[in-house]
Amino acid sequence: MNSNNQKLIKLIASVLNIDENLINDETSPKNTESWDSFNALVMVSELESQFEVQFSIDEVYSVSNVKEIKDALIKHGTIF
Fold first, then answer.
1. Nearby residues of 61 by Cβ (< 8 Å), 6 or more positions away
2. I need a surface site. Which of 15, 17, 27, 65 has the fewest CB within 10 A?
3. How many CB atoms lie within 10 A of CB 1?
4. Is pTM, for the whole model, over 0.90?
5. Buried/exposed code over 61-77 (b: 16+ C-beta within 10 A; e: otherwise)
6. What confidence tens digit (pLDDT) does each residue in 16-67 have?
7. Which CATH superfamily is domain 3-75 in?
């Protein structure tokens, strides 16, 4: 597994307080009870800090699952 992918999964698991093995590209607020609006904001802050990126408001609102988080990070130069 790519180190940035591991880093992303660890970050999401930590913020959402869930097991890393439960996270895949389809993990989203729709299928993850702890992914609420507050944790979404915490996740954005952690993602920006850990991956040294700055998301636009449009990016923050358009992301709805782990795959889309990866896609947003890729646009900012992160390699997966």
1. none
2. 17
3. 7
4. yes
5. eebebbeebbebbeeee
6. 999 999 999 999 999 999 999 999 999 999 999 999 999 999 999 999 999 9
7. ACP-like (1.10.1200.10)
